[in-house]
Amino acid sequence: xxxxxxxxxxxERQATECFQKxxxxxxxxxxxVAFGQNSSIIPKQDFDxxxxxxxxxxxxxxxMLFDVLLPVIKKTMDVVYSRALKLFDKYDSGxxxxxxxxxxxxxxxxxxxxxxxxxxxxxxxxxxxxxxxxVKFAGMVCKHIYLANEIFSDGVRQKTSxxxxxxxxxxxxxDTVITDAFFCYGSQKLSKRERRxxxxxxxxxxxxx
Length: 209
Known about the structure:
- By secondary structure, the protein is α+β, with helices and mostly antiparallel strands.
- The protein folds into two domains: 4-155, no CATH class; 171-209, no CATH class.
- The chain contains seven helices and six strands.
- The protein has a four-stranded antiparallel beta sheet, covered by helices on one side. Strands 5-6 form a two-stranded antiparallel ribbon.
């Protein structure tokens, strides 16, 4: 499940705040509202055990609650991600506009109403669409966040002559360069990689970005 770490962290943050504000309301929200029809697969006894543990150890209770709800979170997010992939196909075909507004804000055109759009913030992983407003208190995200994250967050978006995206993954360290390919990010990093003996980077050639 993509973004699982971020979802887990947001689940804990929301649970901590919402339980303190209205314990019964958030318990009912998690049990009956957040996951829609998938709520039927929540193991009720395990859920109640986590709630009981919360009474004596809040942090441990929330951690157990996340573990109990993780299967239903994953099932719900798998559906959302599959919808995001359909959005990406439309975007890839030029049928859906996705625009970078700067500072991590992305405007995603609605797939059901071409005259409407939603604003995604990749820094906070928030969206102003109705679905996100429903699921955000369980730490989950919507298809627009998945789509924007797929396009902008993990790589540099390039455009080909056919106006289709070409993602260039950014390695975390210079020593993670793939042996049968290389990427150009600037003369300084190329120089460092060349000194590591990467035979895929020709010597004596200048690269300009």
